[in-house]
Specification:
Two copies of one chain form a homodimer. In chain A, α2 crosses α6. Helix content of chain A is 36%, strand content 28%. The radius of gyration of chain A is 26 Å and the shape is globular. Chain A is of the alpha+beta class. In chain A, strands 3, 9, 10, 11, 12, 13, 16, 22, 23, 24, 25 and 26 form a twelve-stranded mixed β-sheet that branches.
């Protein structure tokens, strides 16, 4: 481990950037805006994928794979969709390189120009609905419940590791239904799946709700989102689920015959989460010593570090430690025993703290004598001496306790940083000086939302599903409003 | 299920193309050369991925993710590498679309031209070695044992579903080592892993060996490959493992300090298998009725079809069938009970035959009375009546038997279709009239190999690892040769 991390209080943004790199999660690549996800970071993403994939399959979905490239003309078929994505597309125009005989350099072969340019998918609605056209004739072909794990590209100008990158990994569900009701129920089901995953796996409480028109997905009739609050008081959109109505079915002419042979357009949803969730995980829990990982997503849940002088002591500790390791693994706990002699215990302690390993066990010669162990938990940094007897059950419970504790901590933080504002002055003061979520009345117009955004950088994150009806006045226009919406500055 | 498949004898190529589509494995997309992998096909690929991923992790590898795009200049750094891939590259030249105000059509924004073009990765050696440069300083940083699951693009002109597509899915391992010996051992280990997977999971026997210079990977000092024989007598390269020497370390200036502080270039390997394995699986075992899946990779291992008249009979069969399903699932067997009333049993039988489900259980009213079941195995199409008692163990064994049987069948086929040729006339006769593998002497020169290829379309698939030393004469040039090499026409 090199120099210490910048402290969150000093510079939260720099703390995040340093942490991602130092904890071996990801780094910037030679390609502008594209990241390298390093093995340790990727192993967390794999755990996220496995948990989500199971949730998708348990709700009846199957995986499939659609092309990376989308013909340019497909984009134009759904008007608002192309508006939303045209400005940030990577475009393939040629299919060959050649050696330039004059300069002896590799150049793009001008003779190999594509007739129609191909867009590297920023999302796959268009290519998928063009495919579904051939899959759907009758109500018997519905519903189609398909998910894709894939890379997508959006040419973002300002990028940050995991939070906003030109290329990112994600999953995108694309479903087709016979009725509007069924499609809406699917849209709701998937935002609930995402909320469940965010809260019970990442340990981050989220607020579910509708997006306002301004923030809706390009081509959707309704976008549901989950919003999480980060430690710097900014919101992070962690997942979205879109009710697409019949927009894409109309754009790609996808009709089905119902039981009576009557033709109608198919109803659609799409929903996705991405490697951005890694950003949520990192920012929600970590501290000035490094990463704090939720045990359910930690690649290493327990690390055992021997403290010894000489080979004889090490041999005796090895024997005992390997036995504890096997016993823990038999309970399904992932354990690393780090007895490398190239690094000192203090270095290892700092390293595993930086990497967020939930539980550290230290074992020295005195522990051998006393049948004890030193147990340190990453979330609170507390240490205690425990008997080796029954240690497996103790650790098993401890991991559950840590998972719960970091969630409760994040929930407490969110409660303390969620405010109501009844005037625009109050609103601006909170946004500027405190940060966090602000519940305020809004007149429902895109214009007001835009003005508030221009003046304060805060946007409506969601109109919460559980927002209580109450009479109020828009903080900006003073017009009547029926419920509060959730504002924040956002990532 | 629609019309019957073309028979293999009539037109093998058409049989394959129809089978891939009709069995819901994949289909062509609107993007030239890119396929859609349908849910059923993708679920087989997922099973392949899971098995391979475990084998990679068991041999010490971790997954990571590197950028999709590679700066054009990176390609030029390793001379033979760029020669190998330049002719088939998708090139990104722009990063924005816009609305053309004159035509009101979406066009590529000429103002958004990239300074340096980006290549959609055809393989990732260059971007990865550019990254490893920052990861490697000393021997303590080695070995690096990393794998990536990703999509790659090679702009093939003639494409076929799974066998050769412009975009395909694969894994690419990229390892870095302190010594030549260690890198060679890794290269060997991974070709053995691939052979193990091909034989014990896909059920396809393979021949392991070295590639000749002509067929070597662009940038490798040595390429090891596994070659399988398809039912039409053509070979299919199913996996490759490359010893890259210090070529990429030199191209990207990646050095490490050994224990004495002496600097040297790092040694490299790379290895990969792709969705092409799906082609091997399909072609090796399937018949004129459809797919024949190895049980270990079958998404549905057992299908249960009820045969009934009226709801009362169905109710009684449902109860029993669901019980058998649970019992089988408790043994880790995947079971589908298809009691849809929208399709007749005969339709279902044909459908699951087409989809290659290894075991079909039919259950009618007489089976209820007699405590029996009709069991049909897909590989031999044999049917038998069995008692319901102990059926779970019987099916469990039957699946193992089918897995073994299709392997033995493929092995027998390969033996019957592997010939020795001692003269060029003999060689040409076999290649032209019988097909299959031909073991023949070769003088070791690229020129001779090229002439044989030009005249017969047959290439050297591998120089088998287990080729026995014997004195012979090259079938083409008559020059002396020490061992036979394996020729065939290939996919």
């Amino acid at each position: 481990m090199a120099e210490k991390l910048t402290k969150r209080q000093e510079n939260y943004s720099q703390w995040y950037n340093e942490l991602v790199v130092k904890a071996d999660l990801a780094e910037n690549s030679a390609v502008r805006g594209s990241m390298v996800i390093k093995p340790y970071g990727y192993s967390i993403w794999e755990k996220m994928q496995a948990a989500l994939d199971k949730m998708f399959k348990d709700t009846g979905h199957s995986n499939a794979y659609f092309p990376l490239f989308i013909p340019k003309s497909f984009f134009s078929k759904e008007a608002s969709h192309v508006d939303g994505f045209a400005k940030e597309c990577a475009v393939v125009t040629h299919y060959r390189l050649k050696n330039d005989e004059v300069t002896n350099k590799i150049i793009v072969d001008p003779a190999a120009k594509l007739e129609e340019e191909l867009i590297v998918r920023p999302t796959s609605e268009t290519i998928i609905w063009n495919t579904y056209k051939n899959w759907i004739q009758s109500y018997r072909d519905l519903p189609i419940l398909v998910n894709q794990w894939a890379n997508v590209v959006r040419w973002e100008m300002r990028t940050r590791l995991f939070l906003r990158t030109a290329e990112f990994l994600w999953q995108e569900g694309h479903t087709a239904h016979a009725t509007k009701e069924e499609a809406i129920a699917e849209t709701e089901q998937m935002i609930n799946v995402y909320a469940d995953f965010a809260e019970n796996w990442i340990g981050v409480p989220v607020i579910k709700g509708y997006k306002s028109e301004n923030e809706r997905f390009a081509g959707a009739l309704d976008t549901f989102a989950i919003e999480a609050l980060m430690q710097d008081g900014k919101a992070l959109q962690a997942g979205t689920s879109h009710f697409l109505g019949q927009n894409f079915a109309k754009a790609f002419d996808v009709k089905f015959a119902d039981k009576n042979g009557k033709l109608d357009y198919v109803w659609a949803t799409s929903w996705g989460v991405s490697t951005r969730l890694m950003g949520a995980l990192i920012m929600a829990h970590s501290d000035d010593n490094g990463l704090v990982l939720p045990p359910k997503l930690a690649p290493i849940q327990v690390v055992i570090v021997p403290i010894y002088k000489g080979q004889d002591q090490l041999d005796r500790i090895n024997e005992k430690a390997n036995q504890i390791k096997s016993n823990l693994e038999a309970k399904g706990i992932s354990v690393k025993y780090d007895n490398r002699d190239t690094y000192k215990p203090g270095w290892k302690f700092a390293e595993y703290e930086l990497k967020g390993v939930p539980v550290r066990i230290a074992m020295g010669p005195r522990d051998l004598e006393n049948n004890t162990l030193e147990i340190a938990r990453r979330d609170t940094l507390e240490k205690e001496i425990k008997s080796q007897d029954g240690i497996e059950s103790y650790i098993d419970e401890l991991l559950k306790d840590i998972q719960n504790n970091i969630y409760q901590k994040a929930l407490k933080f969110r409660k303390e940083n969620t405010h109501k504002a009844d005037t625009y002055e109050e609103f601006k003061d909170i946004i500027e000086n405190k940060g966090g979520f602000v519940l305020a009345h809004w007149d429902g117009t895109p214009e007001t939302e835009q003005r508030i955004k221009d003046e304060t950088k805060a946007t409506i994150r969601v109109i919460p599903f559980d927002s209580i009806e109450e009479d109020g006045k828009c903080i900006y226009s003073g017009k009547p409003s029926k419920k509060r919406v959730l504002f924040a500055k956002a990532y």
